Amino acid sequence: MRKTPIIIMLVVCCLFVVSLIIKATSAPDGAAGFDAFLHGFYVTFAAFLTLAIMSFLYRDNPFYKFAEHLYVGVSAAYAMCLGFWSTLVGNLFPRISETLCDWFEVPFTGYEWHFLVPPVLGVILLMRLSPKGGWISRWALAFIVGTTAGLNLPRFLRSDFIEQISSTFVPLLVNWQGIGNFFSNLSLSASGQLVTMLSNLVVFLGVLCGIIYFFFSKEHKGAFGAASRFGIWILMITFGASFGYTVMGRISLLVGRLTFLLDNWLGVITNR
Fold first, then answer.
1. DSSP secondary-structure letter at 52?
2. Distances (CA, A) of 71 to 28, 53, 107, 160, 203
3. Using CA atoms, how far apart are residues 173 and 183, in angstroms rounded to an integer?
């Protein structure tokens, strides 16, 4: 049983080398020598990582763990570098040190000493690594969480609460000019008066019945119960559409990786 992992590893290494050679020899026009080798390595390594991630569908294995750890490590390193150059070099150094600005070749904007507060809080957060001084980091964490919550509360209140409520205040009679004008200009187009009125009616009834479903001070019987059951259907349709949208997004990612494997790596299909 111990020979099986070794055999699988040797087979994977051989396939990797073969793919590297084939893709290097079929490099785009103008690529030769080391550039052709890099092209073959990039395509082969990307295909290897894609297949390694997909191998989790079979079961957990060392190839999947390698790809997972590599992805997490590269993502963390990229985020750290991006934060250093955009936050420290881009925002902090130009406001606290002219020498550091000359070193990193960024313009100095003038001293603003209140910008020293974030790095001090960051250093205090690192006290979490100290066995005895870990409690000090709670002060910085509490300040950061409280400030973030206070700054984001008005924004979320406006976007997720007020805007959603105002979007439900829709007219049930759109551009109403009488019953005669309504039937004379009757249209089934998406922007027509009939479809718009029906859409607004569905929004109004859906919001009303959804609220009724969560009203537990009255027993759900009769017309009230029917409205509650209709609210359940509205909620289920909404959740299903949201879940379907999420699945479609994941499917698009899968299609992209399969297209890469079949086109850029194996060359089975070609872009038109």
1. H
2. 27, 10, 35, 33, 43
3. 14
Nearest Cα residue to 41 out of 22, 20, 67, 21: 20
pTM: 0.73
Rounded Cα gap, residues 149 and 145, in angstroms: 6
CA distance 186 to 25: 65
Question: 254 in helix, strand or coil?
Answer: helix
Per-residue b or e along 209-240, where b marks 16 or more CB atoms closer than 10 Å to that residue's CB = bbebbeeeeeeeeeeeeebbebbeebeeeeee
List, in order, residues 6 or more apart from 162 with CB less than 8 Å away.
Answer: none
Taking the alpha carbons at both ends of the chain, their separation in whole angstroms is: 47
Helices (H), the chain: 3-25, 34-54, 62-83, 93-96, 98-104, 117-125, 137-156, 163-167, 179-184, 193-213, 222-259
* pLDDT 10s digits, 7-63: 888 888 899 899 988 888 887 766 677 888 888 899 999 999 999 999 998 888 899
Q: Tens of pLDDT along 154-174?
A: 988 888 888 888 888 888 888
Identity of the amino acid at 17: V
In this structure, the chain runs to a length of 272
